[in-house]
Design a protein that fits this description.
single chain, 13 helices, mainly alpha
Length: 319
């Protein structure tokens, strides 16, 4: 079993770097999607990230061996590939219909679905604190959508379709998350991501239109490159954070990502109103976003909180 190094401040810093990178990603992607289609953007992101990982692993002699996979491992790779491709493409399709802040908030459902799936598949425990966190998260969503609840529940316009598409992205990401969790028993995280990224890029190549990149403005071209590097750097910081800090606390820190997105949109809309549109949210909507973040963090920290309370009771009883 992996034990963190105990350098919690370093782990916190890396987790915050990941949250910031993931938080600003949809703002950049929104600009690129004005010219390129979601499949092509996904193809570029996967191909660049996978190729850079391949070059790195080849240079250090740590390319993964497929002989150790077996039939079960091959099935897990296939599920991971289809899950990640579906997540990336559906996320971008939803982003075209929604604002960056809304998209990033709804995608928070993904880790919750992964948690619920793990309870049934891996017999993981679901604590009372996690249940409370889930309740807070649902209340937060209700407040966040307070201005458009009627539209969500009574019609199938672009806004509702966008929400459903991002929810579908969260659902298929669960298949990727569960499969990757098992693959980590055979390969390390960088090997897993290299294989998945390259296979994903290969899978969607027939539907990609690389020539669309020639239509990008210089600014959009740099943003596309930034999007390609974002996933690689953010994931590297995330993996390194897990080496120095408990997974539950890293996950709780990453729950801040939607707030980073909302702050980024507000700042960018103020500085560059011709390029970025401000979020259409009232006070209740922003309060709901905060509750979603708190609920996500509480759900992630649930087991640690229960363990801490039990340890405290044990110490008090021993006095």
């Amino acid at each position: 079993m992996h034990v963190s190094s105990g350098r919690w401040l370093y782990g916190l810093s890396l987790a915050l770097v990941t949250a910031v990178l993931w938080g600003i990603l949809p703002v950049k992607l929104k600009q690129v999607l004005q010219v390129m289609d979601p499949v092509t953007v996904t193809w570029f992101r996967l191909l660049v990230s996978g190729s850079l990982l391949f070059i790195w692993l080849a240079s250090v002699g740590r390319l993964p061996s497929f002989k150790v996979l077996g039939r079960k491992g091959q099935i897990l790779v296939a599920l991971s590939v289809f899950g990640l491709v579906g997540n990336y493409v559906l996320y971008l399709m939803g982003l075209k219909m929604l604002s960056p802040g809304t998209t990033q908030l709804v995608i928070q459902v993904g880790p919750i679905l992964l948690l619920i799936s793990s309870i049934f598949l891996f017999k993981e425990r679901f604590s009372m604190a996690q249940g409370l966190g889930l309740l807070v998260l649902l209340m937060g969503f209700g407040l966040f959508f307070n201005q458009r609840l009627e539209e969500l529940l009574t019609s199938l316009g672009d806004y509702t379709a966008g929400i459903l598409t991002v929810l579908a992205a969260s659902a298929v990401w669960t298949f990727y998350g569960l499969s990757q969790k098992q693959l980590l028993t055979v390969w390390n995280s960088l090997q897993v991501m290299m294989v998945i990224y390259l296979f994903c890029a290969l899978l969607i190549t027939p539907w990609a239109h690389p020539a669309e990149a020639l239509q990008l403005s210089p600014l959009q071209g740099w943003l596309l490159l930034a999007c390609c590097l974002n996933t690689l750097v953010a994931y590297g910081a995330f993996a390194e954070a897990l080496a120095h800090w408990e997974a539950s606390r890293v996950s709780a820190t990453l729950a801040l990502t939607p707030l980073v997105t909302l702050a980024t949109v507000a700042t960018a809309a103020w500085l560059w109103p011709d390029y970025v549109q401000a979020e259409d949210l009232n006070g209740l909507g922003y309060s709901g976003a905060v509750l979603v973040v708190l609920g996500s963090a509480l759900t992630a920290l649930g087991p640690s909180l229960i363990a801490g309370l039990r340890a405290r009771r044990a110490r008090l009883a021993a006095v």
